[in-house]
Amino acid sequence: MYRFLLSRQWVILTLVALALIPTMIELGFWQFHRHERRVAQNTLIADNLKASPVPVEELSSPGHVVPRADYWRRVTATGTFDTAHEVVVRRRTSSDDRVGAHVLTPLVLKDGRIVLVNRGWVPGAANQRDYPDVPPAPKGEVTVAGRLKADETTGASGIKDLKGLPDRQVMLISSRQQAELIGREVLGGYIEQTEPEAAGGSPEQIAEPDHDSIGAHMAYAVQWWLFAAGVPVGWIVLARREKRDRENGTADGTTDGTTGNGDGDGDAPDGTAPEATQEDGSAIQATSPR
């Protein structure tokens, strides 16, 4: 009945189906885990943005690696800006996707240590090797507030740390690199400034991270699982159709053929031998042997 399943064509089809089912299930779980991570990140961002601000010295120190639990924590810092060691971070986009740079200015704290402050976005220069037009930082002692961020790495950001860049231009925000350039202790991570707002709106402050949308990962996960469930269903439908087509083909082959009556090849219905005829069509008289 189903012996055709042992044919080469059906063996290959079955193996492909068996390989697709676990693959699609795994892809579904991959999207599901991405959904879970997105939900967890949104919760973390929302909670940290709601938390009361604390002095940055309580959450970081020289050489400190900011843990994920402290990402986007609201912090404050009081000190004076060191514009002599200010740098710009290349190839950064604004809230409306214009390409420019972030302004990274060291803030010297009262104890002499330094924390890096990302003051915001400015348009890039016409020539990429030129230093962009950066509004000066406030003079004198200031108190800034913002979101604590971890040092950037190529692995986490996907941005290559290019060498041979023009003076005072960098690709990544790294407290370790800036500590070597400045020659002083720099707190790990940096502050993404939110207060006070810059005069004239430049540098343009970085927008708050999105923590409302969850993306379509859950929908993709359900789609992959539905595809996995559809593979065996499709296999069964194809197998039953093949069986039906073969049965119909066999039935057609037996009913269309013609067969004799089984009494002899070419005999007349009454069992007598057919009458012989001459070339002119007249019958030949049969004679009995003497």
TrEMBL record:
Membrane-topology descriptor: Multi-pass membrane protein
Domain of life: Bacteria
Listed transmembrane segments: 12-32
Alphabetically ordered keywords of this record: Cell membrane, Membrane, Transmembrane, Transmembrane helix
UniProt keyword Transmembrane, yes or no: yes
Signal peptide bounds: none
Family under the similarity heading: Belongs to the SURF1 family.
Name of the protein this chain belongs to: SURF1-like protein
Origin species: Streptomyces hydrogenans
